[in-house]
Amino acid sequence: MKKYIILAESGGDVPKDLIDKYGIYTVPMHVSFGDVTKDDGTFPVTDIFEYYENTKQLPQTAGTNMYDFEQVYDKIHAEHPESTILYLAYSAVTTVSYQCGLNAMEDRDYIVAFDTKFASAGQAFVIEKVAEFIEANESASVDDIINYATEIRSRTHMGFFPGDLEYLRAGGRVSNAAYLGAKILSLNPLIEIDDGYLIAKKKYRGKLAKVSKKLIKDFTEEHNLCKDYVMLIFSPRLPEDLKAELMEYTKSLGFEKVRWVQTGSVVSTHSGPAAFGITGMSEK
């Protein structure tokens, strides 16, 4: 019997091997293509890009609703009646999911919620570290786990380049003027997640292959990242030869383990194709 069962939204982009290894459950977020709404994870991410290219309409994303949570809470409880569900949530300030998850906890006293204050690979990173902690500390209490998760969250950092600013423009997240200026000047804005919020930081000028390496180096130094493990983030259509080059470059900086994490449908709708980023944990 497992003492704790981890649950996260699909937008956490937790890799399948980690889901299988730690018995992690996911609850879907949603993407609407016009009048048709689909669960994140049930269709190829590239469908989003093809839909936008064909219609010039950006699909709409939606968080996990209360009904989704009620269904998965009850499913997990039926399968693991003696276990505590640890809901390690997608950043609460970016979506209604967290509040829906809390609302669905009413009359279900076997659930503990924790806002990771991250999305995509940042959320996945926190989840993996918590899963490792639980596996290594079988007698850990809920308070022990939450205290550990809080520490890991404070030391985790995530930054990325959107793959195509046209997707941010179409979604209303950048103005037409800012979009055109960035295109003309070949600017790549760095987006970081800070206390749950997506914040535009400095801009890198140049082609993706060049600025991606600079991002890895700058991010590693600025946040004093632990060299034992780092995640590299990508959305579909990032060239395979560039991925291989960036993997080798990251290893050359002394990282022992490098994992690629692909963005799912929710994150890719906003980042566009060929996005790139990095997630790691600072030294104590």
The coarse overall form would be globular
Using only CA atoms, what is the Rg? 19 Å
Structural class: alpha/beta
Biggest sheet features: 6 strands, mixed
Roughly how many Å apart are the termini? 34 Å
What percentage of amino acids are in beta strands?
Answer: 25-35%
Task: Characterize this entry briefly.
The chain has 284 residues and is α/β, with parallel strands linked by helices. The protein contains 11 helices and 13 strands.
List the helices and strands and how they pair.
Layout: E1 4-9, H1 16-22, E2 25-27, E3 30-33, E4 36-39, H2 46-55, E5 60-62, H3 66-79, E6 84-90, H4 97-104, E7 111-118, H5 120-136, H6 142-155, E8 156-161, H7 165-170, H8 176-185, E9 187-194, E10 197-205, H9 208-222, E11 230-234, H10 240-252, E12 258-262, H11 265-271, E13 276-281
Parallel strand pairs: 1-2, 1-6, 6-7, 11-12
Antiparallel strand pairs: 3-4, 3-5, 8-9, 8-13, 9-10, 11-13
Helix pairs in contact: 3-4, 5-6, 9-10
Summarize the structure in words:
With 284 residues, the protein is of the alpha/beta class. The protein is 43% helix and 26% strand. It has eleven helices and 13 strands. The chain has helices at 16-22, 46-55, 66-79, 97-104, 120-136, 142-155, 165-170, 176-185, 208-222, 240-252, 265-271; strands at 4-9, 25-27, 30-33, 36-39, 60-62, 84-90, 111-118, 156-161, 187-194, 197-205, 230-234, 258-262, 276-281. Strands 10-9-8-13-11-12 form a six-stranded mixed beta sheet, sandwiched between helices. The chain has a four-stranded parallel beta sheet with strand order 2-1-6-7, with helices on both faces. β11, α10 (240-252) and β12 (258-262) form a beta-alpha-beta unit. α3 (66-79) packs across α4 (97-104), α5 (120-136) packs across α6 and α9 runs parallel beside α10 (240-252). The relative contact order is 0.16. Residues 171-185 have low confidence and may be disordered.
